[in-house]
Target: Glutamate decarboxylase isoform X2
Amino acid sequence: MSKLSLDGFFSYCKQIAEHIQLGERMASLSGQGTPKLTSSVGNLYYDSILPYREDAQPQTREFLARVVDVLLDFIHQVNDRNEKILEFRMPEEMSKMCDFQLHDEPLPLKQLLEDCKLALKYQVKTGHPHFFNQLSCGLDIISLAGEWLTAAANTNMFTYEIAPVFILMENVVLEKMRNMIGWRTGDSILAPGGSISNLYAFLAARHHKFPQYKEKGLSSIPGHLVMFTSDQCHYSVKSCASVCGLGTDYCICVPSDERGRMIPTELERLVKYHKDRGNVPFFVNATSGTTVLGAFDPLEEIADICQKYDMWMHVDAAWGGGLLFSKKYRHPRLTGVERADSVTWNPHKLMGTLLQCSTVHFKYEGILLNCNAMSAEYLFMTDKIYDPKYDTGDKVIQCGRHNDIFKLWLQWRGKGTSGFERHMDRLMELAEYQVRRIKEQPDKFHLILEPEMVNVSFWYLPKQLRGLPHDAHKEIKLGKVCAKLKGKMMQSGTLMVGYQPDDRRPNFFRSIISSAAVTEKDVDFMLSEMDRLGQDIVVD
Amino acid sequence: MSKLSLDGFFSYCKQIAEHIQLGERMASLSGQGTPKLTSSVGNLYYDSILPYREDAQPQTREFLARVVDVLLDFIHQVNDRNEKILEFRMPEEMSKMCDFQLHDEPLPLKQLLEDCKLALKYQVKTGHPHFFNQLSCGLDIISLAGEWLTAAANTNMFTYEIAPVFILMENVVLEKMRNMIGWRTGDSILAPGGSISNLYAFLAARHHKFPQYKEKGLSSIPGHLVMFTSDQCHYSVKSCASVCGLGTDYCICVPSDERGRMIPTELERLVKYHKDRGNVPFFVNATSGTTVLGAFDPLEEIADICQKYDMWMHVDAAWGGGLLFSKKYRHPRLTGVERADSVTWNPHKLMGTLLQCSTVHFKYEGILLNCNAMSAEYLFMTDKIYDPKYDTGDKVIQCGRHNDIFKLWLQWRGKGTSGFERHMDRLMELAEYQVRRIKEQPDKFHLILEPEMVNVSFWYLPKQLRGLPHDAHKEIKLGKVCAKLKGKMMQSGTLMVGYQPDDRRPNFFRSIISSAAVTEKDVDFMLSEMDRLGQDIVVD
Model:
């Protein structure tokens, strides 16, 4: 060992001290260490950070880093199976417990950090492996990173001028999706949710068939427009009829079979019926992946009918579209989708992209501009230095449009197309596993039908109802069990599975596996936890 | 100085080394230091982080911390006046320079970090103090923090069940906003942008006046519905007429005065004209803060006419609504807003909330549910354990609805109502400063009108056009200067100011001050930079 000079040693000590300090500060910033931030950023107010003070970069970084701390802890909890999914409180109780009020005076940054913690404490962890409640589950980390960047970039998608990179990414992603549908060309847009995507399809169809409509309105059509959809469709289809002035009476529900699939012969019968009465059938919505049962309407047969009667065929694949990635599951479910005129497909559902990310695709190039352009001169001038065809604002019925592309694009880069395919196959495999496990326990569970997708429909049987013959009378009782058991799930906070009635049966459970977090163990937990919470339920 | 034992010294060295390592690691995590991350997280792929591996918490934190690094650097640049606003590239060039492609195979996390950097490098810095281009400018840090949390919470706003905290926050914020409009009661919703907010108002008006419309459609009305709006209104108003089946021919443009304000006598004349022809005037849109000129329609006089002819009065205050905070500027601009039936107000504009955040308010309790409910049984069951009045999904024409409230709520907590008032007064003060500075340089700038808001409309005069009399011929030349000068701004990347023509004049510049980052110095920079870039422009 060499000898240390006194000066050298002091200088060394100083370095040590600085590094220790740095280590502590930074450990706190990254949320990994116990040593908590010693600085006083928490006592500052909004006007001590950017952009209010030019020299406020350190405080700004520190404040945001502390917020990120809170978020990283939350993400950890979301993925921790020992954590509860929710801390349920009744609305009135929650309002009393939490200070949600807006004050005249600013609150300090430390209070905002507490606000963030509080919000997350009582928020439902939709990314938890035991959350089977909604079509959108899971918390994809890469998509999350994309959404954080989107927020920092804080731009609007209407012109290339202010969103150049994101506009080009949209073009790449949407073209890829159209190709997967089976189209070489066409038009697409991202919309704020599947309902608005379906609305875009409706508007494009109406414009395509009756271009005078845009200016002259409904009165320019001889006869009343009529649209068709199955009785299992998403309610937004009916909503189009109301919004667009048809009236919901002219949105005709086509009966479905016992698996929830539209019956093509019924469709044709109803089309004929309305033609005979002088109405104008012009739009058919086929669903690929219904909300409740996960059913797929027979696209080929529907396409034949649309062709025969010159109607626009829209496929609402908001839910089922993700299966286009899977060689194994795409057929026969989505066979014929390329014959559609338009397709809705929500990456925020089966693909796990963060909310919101919904797309709608059209077979016809330029149709969105033709249909929706209002030609606002102040945005879409033609004397720009770049080709204004890159501006998307005049294609849409929104003006401001949120950047929903980056989180999807980044996720796709990270997973690769093959990663999405593996994801789809895995989800389906898990749903098949769940079906098997349900069938193995016929005393406790009753499978309602063999699903085509990751929606599994079933009843849970508490002790009171086991061993009794299955009839309509028992179904009513099983329906009553659902609300009670769901209440127990919410109160215990350990599990969330949705339930609903449909037109054939009272309440039943519909679980969804669309999160990459779920494993066979979690499926087992779902069933055993339902049994733990529900076995002693007694219904009238 | 005490003597060191050899063991003690070694142990001390080990501590030093660890602290140095920690310091370096964490410095990198927080993006403040040069020492870069030594770990190999970058070589990992998506399936090495959560939720794909249970033990992946450290890698996940690290990946996200590195993304945050990139974002914090970007935020620093956004606020650095020495940084350019944009690195402009033509679309074709950008597509060649950047790899936007989606591949079959996954890319490693380090590539995703590079992707993030690249996206930000070519993205326009809309929060930069020299960005005067759009109604939405600025990057509010607290709102940004709110959006990051929103992404991590990744939920949907349709039910209290899955968004309890956020639903309650919506109630608090929207009630506060209604109170500021001047209503004690009512109904409100957040929508994806002002255009959809205006669509909600149109739908509510139609439903309120003609409730049979929802089911029976347009054919149930004797006579053709007609709506009115000024010729300066946002184009989304006209779009409602197209979307909803009226036809744009039945959206009547009311002439405005030279300041861009609707002329009430003209409105009344046109209403009478259409009534006389058997049409049904039912909806008037008044604009508070027009997009181009920032004009305020005279609300009291319009309200009188609406009352007289039993028409719904909507105020599109998407842009001007923020001035409701200001005791100094609220009147006379928004005097009479409380007489409206509905009001659109976008916090993502003047209030600086991150995109998107748009609200629409109604005087009538329960109107949204009455108007839009489709009663999807699978979501909005009435046998839930909490009062289903807290579920908002059936009030809206979307189904999935993004959480746009948290970023606004947190921002409001941070600024306080008084902070928003100071913000509004400051923005107006800066616009007044800009007007003064323009008037002080009549050789270089021509003020088009005294603005009512932060929109300043003016021409820039290159040397070629100075000292010549101002006439229509010169205006055409000044119009040509705009596109050329804007091109130079884009190429130099130092400044962005928008331009457009209107129906009275060719192209002119319209600058916007809506960012809290802007100071008097930045206003001076805007004008001097325009002169630097533009003085030698020559037009035909």
